[in-house]
Amino acid sequence: MTKLYGFGNALIDIEISIKEEDLKSIDIPKGSMKDISHEEMTNLLSGFSSSINSRLPGGSIANALYAANQFGAIIHFSCSVGNDDYGEYFVDSFMDNENLITYKMSDKPTGICLIFVTPDGERTMASNLGANEDLSPEALNIEKVESSDFLIFDNFSLTTTLANSTVVSALNNKNKSTKICFGLSDVNLIDRNIERLEWLSQNKIEYVFGNEKEVERLKEVLEFYAENFVKTLDSRGAMHNDHMMPAPKLASVANTNGAGDALMGAFLALKEKEGVEKALMKAVAYATRVCSVNGPRLT
């Protein structure tokens, strides 16, 4: 079975239904992400308390590994959580904690991502990283890093010196045969992390995952080399390099939260066993199903 090791943000996703006109009032461009303070988060939660749909474990890489596990992959995730109820809830979402997750306990509260969902299903995010700011190499399980087939992390792990040291440690300790997979996460992070992205591109990257805007922006600002690019195209499907895989029709979209993460995890879990085309077809279908439910994961 394919072994996937990932590290990144441990978040509790709080999904909130919002009207288009109300979205304009919170000053976050539709479809984008913004870092907010704990005070801002508290105020937004208070203002939209009656519109909360769900509170569920999230975080891009954690979501991807969850999806991969649904397709039989052996997974392990490393992160930093707060010593609070949300931290316990996040850790408990990995059913076999000893084998599936290692984490650093932080004095900061567990990270929260407010996900505002407009009637068209589009998501706009406001994130307070909290304990994720303390992600460091000590959270890694080096033995599992060394034995993994794929090492997965994303652009959020390049945003701080401490988190970036986790990337360096993981890359230094991985096996020579371990393939590196990188998620672009958010278009705004590309310009913010450009120097570290330039450094990362000097490593052999097997897969880069991102949506259309993210991939296009990366190629505009950097000659970022990767063996393969997997680009999500919203309801149209996804592309593996130049190969298009259309998405099945969906009667109604609840929201798009977690769809790209699900595609990444499902594809990597299936690729070695079923080949690129069949793996992409099943991953697109799975990601489409994620769009039909509230929350980033299918249970």
Produce a short descriptive summary:
The protein is of the alpha/beta class and 299 residues long. The protein has helices at 20-25, 38-47, 60-70, 85-92, 97-100, 142-146, 161-173, 187-192, 194-200, 212-221, 259-274, 276-290, and strands at residues 3-7, 11-17, 33-35, 52-58, 74-82, 101-106, 111-117, 123-128, 150-154, 179-183, 205-211, 228-232, 237-240, 243-246. The two termini are 21 Å apart.
Q: What is the CATH class?
A: Alpha Beta
Task: Give the overall average pLDDT.
Answer: 94
Radius of gyration: 18 Å
Number of domains: 1
Outline: globular
Task: Tell me the major beta sheet.
Answer: 9 strands, mixed
Write the H/E string, N to C.
Answer: EEHEHEHEHHEEEHEHEHHEHEEEHH
Q: Kindly estimate the percentage of residues that lie in beta strands according to DSSP.
A: 25-35%
* C-alpha end-to-end distance: 21 Å
Could you name the ranges where pLDDT drops below 50 across 5 or more consecutive residues? none
The CATH topology assignment is: UDP-N-acetylmuramoyl-L-alanine:D-glutamate ligase
Structural class: alpha/beta
How many β-strand runs?
14
- What multimeric state do the chains show? single chain
Helix content: 25-40%
CATH architecture annotation: 3-Layer(aba) Sandwich
Number of discrete helical segments = 12
Strand order of the largest sheet: 6-5-1-9-10-11-12-13-14
CATH superfamily: Ribokinase
Notes on the protein architecture:
The chain has 299 residues and is of the alpha/beta class. The protein has one domain (3-10, 58-110, 130-290): Ribokinase (UDP-N-acetylmuramoyl-L-alanine:D-glutamate ligase, 3-Layer(aba) Sandwich). Helices cover 37% and strands 27% of the residues. The protein contains 12 helices and 14 strands. The strands form 2 sheets. It has a 9-stranded mixed β-sheet with strand order 6-5-1-9-10-11-12-13-14, with helices on both faces. Helix 3 packs across helix 11 (259-274). It is globular, with a radius of gyration of 18 Å. The mean pLDDT is 94.
